[in-house]
Amino acid sequence: MINVIGLGYIGLPTALMMASHGVEVVGTDYNASLVATLNAGHTTFKEEGLDELFAEAAAAGIRFTTEYQVCGTYIVSVPTPYDKVDKKIDPSYVVSACRTVLGVAPQGAVLVIESTVSPNTIDRFVRPLLTEAGRQDVSLVHAPERIIPGNMVHELVHNNRTIGADDPEVGERVADLYASFCRGEIAITDIRTAEMTKVVENTFRAVNIAFANELAKVCRVGGMDVYEVIRIANKHPRVNILQPGPGVGGHCIPVDPWFLVGDYPETANFIRLALQTNFSMPEYVLRRAHEAMAERGIADPSRVGVYGLAYKEDVDDVRESPTLQLLGAQAEHLCGAPMRVYDPWVEADVVPNQVHSMSEFLDGLEMVIVMVGHSEIKGRPELFGDRILIDPRNVMGDGANVYKL
Predict the structure, then answer these.
(1) pLDDT for 338-355, tens place per residue?
(2) Which of 71, 219, 252, 335 is catalytic?
(3) 2-189, what's its fold?
(4) 198 included as an active-site residue
(5) What is the pTM of this model?
C-alpha cells in the first residue's frame, strides 16, 4: 500500500494515477473538508481529464483520510513556499509531514518526497528527523514532480521522471512504482542531484521568460514590435525566444528559482535579476494601461476591468497569479478603487469586485486588461465590443483598440 501525503495540485493527481494503474493507495490530507469532498466523489479543482481519472481510481478502491497509514511506502507532496525576505525555502510543511510519517512507519519503510525542494533540503531538514526519531531503518528518496496545471494527466504519464536515492536498489524499487503509469524515461541518481535538477529546470524557464520580458521593454523604448522581432529571430536554427507576458504565476517558476538565490546569495546574481524582471511585469502592465487611459481620455479607474484571475489559460489555479500582483500594485500606488475582475474558470471569490459573468463584467467598462488568454476569448476581440484592450498576452490579434506590451 502507498500512502500519499498532501492531496493538492500534485498529490491528488499522483494518487489517482497510481490507484488507476493497480496500486493500492490511501490519500491523506490534514484538511478535513477537502477529504470529505473527495470521499463524496468530487474533485477539488478543475483539470482536464481529472474527473475521469478520479472515477477510475474510485473504482479501483482509492481511499481518502486525514490519518497517516501504516504501510511500506509514503509519498509526501506538500507545499514548499519560500520566505519572501531572505528567499530561502520554508521546509516546515515537509518537515511536519515527514515527522508524522516517522511516527507510524513500519521498519524498512520508504519515504519519498515529491515536493520541490532546494538542494540539500533533505540533508539539512529531513535526514536529521530520522536520527531524532531513531529511524535509520527508513529509506529516503526524492522524486520531484514534473507536471503543469492544464495538462497534468497527460504529463504524469508521458513526462520523464527523476528518482534520487541513497541506495540505488531502493531507487530501482521506487522507479518500478512510478513505472506502473509513467511511460517516460526514469533516471536514477543521488538525492542532491535530484533536488538540483528540478530547481534548475524551473530556473531555466524563468530566465528565458525574463529575457523575453526584458526584450519587450527594450523594444517598446526603441519603438519596435517585439513580437515581430521574436518571430524573425526565431527563424535562426539555434534561437528559440519565448513570448513576453504580464508576469509569471503558478507554484513552480516564480517560486523555485528563489531557492537558489536564497541558498547561494553571493553567486546566483543572474537568476536574481531574471526573477526581478519577471516580478516587475504586472506593474509594467498597469503603467501601460495608465498610458492608454491618458491617451484615450479615460479618467475613472472604475471604467477599467481585468479579465483573467488564474495564473495561466484554462485552469482555476490562482497561485502567484500576475493579476493578483497587478491588483496589489494598484492598491500600493493608490490608483483608484479596485478594478472589476472576471475569470470564467475561477468560481470562488478571491478578490474584491470579482464578478461571475461576462455580461456583468463588461457592463459600463471602457477598457479591459486581458491578463489571461483563456480559450473562450483567444483571437476573439469582438467579445469585448468596442472597448479598449490591453493585451500583454498577445492573444487578441491586431486592431486600433488593442494595446500590446
Answers:
(1) 899 999 999 999 998 999
(2) 252
(3) Rossmann fold (3.40.50)
(4) yes
(5) 0.91
